[in-house]
């Protein structure tokens, strides 16, 4: 069973909660990526979890 991606409508409205900058969806990791903050926010059951304490640090 695959984890569904967030809807395009939802993705168009999301911003990083830390930097307020743009984010994009990464299907390989099923997460919302904020390059400026260096964070990956998980997506669970098609719903982005945009809480900084739930994010993981990106490899630089």
Description:
This protein has 60 residues and is mainly beta. The chain has a single domain, classed as Single Sheet (N-terminal domain of TfIIb). 10% of the residues lie in helices and 28% in strands. It is built from 1 helix and 5 strands; from the N terminus they run αβββββ. Strands 1, 2, 3, 4 and 5 form a 5-stranded antiparallel beta sheet that branches. The chain is globular, with a radius of gyration of 11 Å. The mean pLDDT is 93.
How many strands, what sense, and barrel or not for the largest sheet?
Answer: 5 strands, antiparallel
The CATH class label is Mainly Beta
The total of helices stands at 1
Portion in helices: 10-25%
Outline, from the CA principal axes? globular
- CATH fold name: N-terminal domain of TfIIb
Quickly count the domains: 1
Strand content: 25-35%
> What class would the helix/strand composition place it in?
mainly beta
Q: pLDDT below 50 for ≥5 consecutive residues: which ranges?
A: none
What sequence of helices (H) and strands (E) makes up the elements?
Answer: HEEEEE
Please state the CA-atom Rg, rounded to the nearest Å: 11 Å
The CATH architecture can be given as Single Sheet
* Average residue-wise pLDDT: 93
The N- and C-terminal alpha carbons lie at a distance of: 31 Å
Instruction: Compute the number of strand runs.
Output: 5
């Amino acid at each position: 069973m695959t984890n569904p991606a967030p809807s395009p409508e939802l993705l168009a409205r999301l911003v990083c909660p830390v930097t307020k900058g743009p984010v994009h969806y990464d299907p390989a990791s099923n997460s919302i990526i904020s390059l400026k903050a260096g964070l990956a926010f998980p997506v669970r059951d098609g719903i982005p979890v945009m809480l900084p304490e739930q994010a993981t640090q990106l490899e630089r």
